[in-house]
C-alpha cells in the first residue's frame, strides 16, 4: 500500500513538471540547505554586452587573507573557462597584473572590455587525509569558502560598466578534495551568461 502511494505521488509530480525541472529544483534546495556547493552573486548593474564583444580577463596580484594560498592566476583561468563558451573573442593575462598594466594589455590586444578579478577571501578547510596530516587541527575541519570581486571596464573610455561580488561555499556532500577556487567555476560561468541576458537553464 505504501509503495502504491509513493508511486502515485511521483506520477502526480511528474505530470506537473518535467524531469529536468525536478532535478534542478532538488539541486537548488540541496545547495541552499548546505549539502551541495552554493554561491551568491551580487551585481551592481544589470548591464548587457554583445556576444561578439572581445573580453580580456586579468587578475590582480592581491593575496587573500587567511592561511589559504590559491594559485596566483587561478581566478583568471577559471573565468576564462567560463567565458569561452559564450564569448568567442576572449583572452586572459598569463600572470597576475595591476589594473593599469591589465588595461594597457587589453587595449593593445584590441579588447572592448577588461574583466578584472580579485580573490578577496579564501578559506581552505581540511577536506582530505593529506590536508589533515599537514595541519592536524580539528577546528580546521569543514567546508571551503571564498569571495571574489569583479570589475567590468570598457577599455575605450575606462568606464566601470559593472561590479560584482561572488561568495561561494562548499557542501557537506561535495567538500572532499576541493579548494576554494574550485567553487568559482559555476558562478563565473553564470556571470558570463548574465552579461548576455541569458537566464539559468
Describe the protein in words.
The protein is of the alpha/beta class and 201 residues long. The chain folds into 2 domains: 1-33; 38-195, Rossmann fold (3-Layer(aba) Sandwich), CATH 3.40.50. 34% of the residues lie in helices and 22% in strands. A 6-stranded mixed beta sheet has the order 1-6-5-4-2-3. The chain is globular, with a radius of gyration of 20 Å. The model is unreliable at 22-35 (pLDDT under 50).
Concise summary:
With 201 residues, the protein is of the alpha/beta class. The protein folds into 2 domains: 33 residues; 158 residues, Rossmann fold, CATH 3.40.50.
For the biggest β-sheet, the strand order reads: 1-6-5-4-2-3
Total domain units: 2
- Sheet-strand content, in percent, reads 15-25%
The CATH class designation of the largest domain is: Alpha Beta
C-alpha end-to-end distance: 37 Å
Strand tally is 6
- What is the tally of helical segments? 6
CATH homologous superfamily title of the largest domain: ABC-type transport auxiliary lipoprotein component
How would you spell out the order of helices and strands?
HHEEHEHEHEEH
Residue-averaged pLDDT: 76
Molecular shape? globular
Residue share in helix: 25-40%
CATH topology of the largest domain: Rossmann fold
Q: Which value, in Å, is the CA radius of gyration?
A: 20 Å
What is the correct CATH architecture of the largest domain? Answer: 3-Layer(aba) Sandwich
Lay out the secondary structure:
Blueprint: H1 2-16, H2 19-32, E1 38-43, E2 55-59, H3 74-83, E3 90-92, H4 99-109, E4 113-123, H5 129-135, E5 145-154, E6 160-169, H6 185-195
Parallel strand pairs: 2-3, 2-4
Antiparallel strand pairs: 1-6, 4-5, 5-6
Helix pairs in contact: 3-6
Amino acid at each position: 500500500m505504501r509503495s502504491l502511494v509513493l508511486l502515485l505521488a511521483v506520477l502526480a509530480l511528474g505530470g506537473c513538471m518535467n524531469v529536468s525541472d525536478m532535478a534542478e529544483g532538488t539541486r537548488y534546495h540541496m545547495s541552499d540547505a548546505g549539502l551541495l556547493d552554493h554561491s551568491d552573486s551580487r551585481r551592481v548593474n544589470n548591464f548587457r554586452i554583445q556576444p561578439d564583444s572581445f573580453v580580456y580577463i586579468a587578475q590582480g596580484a592581491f593575496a587573500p587573507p587567511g592561511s589559504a594560498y590559491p594559485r596566483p592566476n587561478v581566478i583568471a583561468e577559471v573565468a576564462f573557462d567560463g567565458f569561452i563558451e559564450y564569448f568567442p573573442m576572449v583572452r586572459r593575462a598569463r600572470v597576475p597584473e595591476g589594473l593599469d598594466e591589465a588595461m594597457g594589455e587589453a587595449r593593445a590586444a584590441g579588447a572592448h572590455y577588461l574583466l578584472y578579478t580579485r580573490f578577496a577571501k579564501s578559506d581552505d578547510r581540511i577536506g582530505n587525509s593529506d590536508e589533515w596530516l599537514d595541519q592536524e587541527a580539528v577546528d580546521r575541519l569543514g567546508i571551503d569558502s571564498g569571495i571574489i570581486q569583479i570589475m567590468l571596464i570598457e577599455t575605450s573610455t575606462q568606464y566601470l560598466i559593472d561590479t560584482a561580488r561572488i561568495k561561494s561555499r562548499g557542501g557537506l556532500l561535495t567538500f572532499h578534495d576541493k579548494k576554494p577556487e574550485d567553487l568559482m567555476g559555476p558562478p563565473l560561468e553564470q556571470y558570463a551568461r548574465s552579461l548576455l541576458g541569458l537566464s539559468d537553464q
